[in-house]
Design brief:
With 156 residues, the protein is mainly α. It is built from five helices and no strands.
């Protein structure tokens, strides 16, 4: 296997492993009821948060997890497509578009799956949140590569 093939395999494995993480998070074992069982004692011990305040924080922690999870997936998919579809640039709409569409598709499948679990709810607003996280990731990737390419150019 060539070094390039090894690199392509590594970036796709990373994206695949993150998809496994998302699939695990989509199970009943990480429902709101379950995560509150271990998060509440921790936050209560560390910060003295009462149950009513915890419910608000728990909601925002879980929604932040959606955003961060799909942000990460989108970046990993961008890297995988960048390695697989060679183009003569540091950033391309093609890589970003495919990564975003795939992330939004996974978000849709995730919520559809959750709609069949008694302890979970599949809601469209989570698909929007997840897709927004993926879109922000692509914007961040664009600006990262733009800044990096400017620094690499020699100054005359």
């Amino acid at each position: 296997m060539t070094p390039e093939q090894k690199h392509i395999l590594k970036v796709w494995i990373a994206a695949g492993l993150w998809l496994v993480v998302i699939a695990i998070e989509s199970t009943a074992y990480l429902s709101s009821e379950y995560t509150s069982r271990f998060l509440y004692p921790i936050l209560h011990f560390l910060f003295g948060i009462d149950w009513a305040r915890f419910l608000v924080w728990h909601h925002y922690i879980r929604k932040s997890g959606h955003f961060v999870g799909y942000f990460t997936l989108s970046v990993l998919l961008f890297r995988a497509w960048k390695a697989s579809l060679r183009l003569p640039s540091a950033w391309a709409w093609r890589w970003a578009g495919i990564a975003w569409v795939m992330s939004a598709f996974v978000a849709s499948l995730d919520e559809w799956h959750q709609s069949y679990l008694a302890s979970r709810t599949g809601v469209f607003s989570d698909v929007v949140l997840d897709s927004t996280g993926a879109l922000v990731a692509q914007a961040a990737t664009y600006f990262y590569w733009r800044i990096r390419s400017r620094k690499a150019k020699p100054v005359h």
